[in-house]
Amino acid sequence: MAEKKNIRELSLEEMKSFFVEIGEKPFRAKQLYEWLWQKSARSFEEMTNLSKGLREKLELHFDLPAVKVAEEQISNDKTVKNAFQLADGKITEGVLIPTTKRMTACISSQVGCSLACKFCATGKLKLMRNIRFDEIYDQVAIIKAQAEKYYDRPLSNIVYMGMGEPLLNYSQLLKSVERITAEDGLGMSPKRITVSTAGIAKLIKRLGDDEVKFNLALSLHAANDEKRSHIMPINEQNNLEVLAEALKHFHDKTGSRVTFEYIIFKDFNDELQDAAELAEFCKHVPCKINIIEYNPIDEGEFQQADPQKVDAFADFLESRNLVVNVRRSRGKDIDAACGQLANKNGAVTVD
Asked: How far apart are CA 328 and CA 291, in angstroms?
């Protein structure tokens, strides 16, 4: 028998056609679709308003390769870190970050990463594969359930800031956002979703051309080409001038302001001269700035900046009428903080 097709790759119309083919009523397709995308069912067995015989037929014809939680850790600050096992045994990670105002899911778009940023633990792993749209959806659905189970609060925000570079998984990224935001999906507002990129200019422009409704964040970390190229090899092909042009295009097409993420490192990018360069770069496009506390990784060359330097840096930017947030680390004790996701729970594959 031919290899079974992933049921979640079928559109609603294709499901209707299948049901008609096997002599079932077409409305069954809508019930199945609801189980998959609104109720987040991860097996045919869960679909209790479908007859046992029908579920057996689905099992015979289709596969439902769902994501499982291989390991769950809860930090002292209540951050929940998940090692997600994909159907082929590969492991990726996702985090629930609870704060007084928000419940945020930080999710992954790739297993590993190819960009090799020096300050990021994920960058030390090789890229193993892109994560499919349904696997991205599963991460959100699992973390959404954890928010309700542990904190009795709904998920409020989603950030594509876990493992991998989302724009290098472009079609699956957009497909996952469609299922997460659709009325017949999880129904999240696209304005509650932020996609973070290390900065691939042509794909930032493509987001603009596609007039996406979600927010864009650029991992900037230095507004000086020499420094940025030192920590982010991708800057060699996507320098600040090229990125500025892409960001302007994105803003012109979408009307959305951009977030600049700036991890602040001791004695590297924490001087007022660095802040002045950042303020200058911010003139290109309406933006806000997240200054992020650095989380050291094993054998990393960087250290956390002194708190006084961080405050002075933020004060300088605010004196230039820029919107600035200083983000303190969450989940550091379980390696769940920004830049620390590296499958420390074990190998990148579970047999």
From this structure: 9
- 212 CB burial (10 A radius; 0-12, 13-18, 19+): buried
The pTM score is: 0.92
For residue 268, give the 3-state DSSP assignment.
coil
Phi, psi of 80 (to 5 degrees): -110, 120
- SS3 at position 303: coil
338 counts as catalytic: yes
Measure CA 158 to chain center: 7
Q: Of residues 93, 135, 165, 261, which has the active-site annotation? A: 93
Q: What is the pLDDT of residue 349?
A: 34
Task: Answer left, alpha or beta for residue 339, where phi above 0 means left and psi between -120 and 50 means alpha.
Answer: left
238 and 325 together in one domain: yes
pLDDT lower than 70: segments of the chain: 1-2, 123, 297-300, 329-351
CB-CB contact of 329 with 322 (8 Å): no
Beta carbons of 349 and 89 less than 8 angstroms apart: yes
pLDDT (tens digit, 9 = 90+) per residue, 191-224?
A: 999 999 999 999 999 999 999 999 999 999 999 9
In whole angstroms, what is the distance from residue 256 CA to residue 213 CA?
Answer: 8
350 lies in some domain: no
Q: Which of 63, 83, 99 is the last residue of a domain?
A: 63
